[in-house]
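Recall the central idea of this unit: under ordinary conditions, the amino acid sequence of a chain determines the structure it adopts. In this exercise we apply that idea directly, starting from the sequence alone.
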Amino acid sequence: MAFLRAHSVRIVAVLAALVPLLVTHFPDIDWYGALALVGALLGVGEVAQRVEDGKTREALHETSPNDALAELHMQLAEYETNHSQASGR
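Accordingly, the structure predicted from this sequence is:
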């Protein structure tokens, strides 16, 4: 399940790319079946896009490990500013 969640859009893209290839290799294909396949791929593509949107929303609400480093950098800069003012520089 983790593999499908991580690569869902890629899998749908490969399947969608195979549809025209199948139609050209099998010209006697049942068009109703092909249309059903295309409709299913569109539905799966929509679901895959929603999964990707969900992952993006989750990532936006996570704190970055760099946030703590930036906070330490700001504290160090403030300390240096205060220290240099106190020493008369």
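The chain is about 85% helix and 0% strand.
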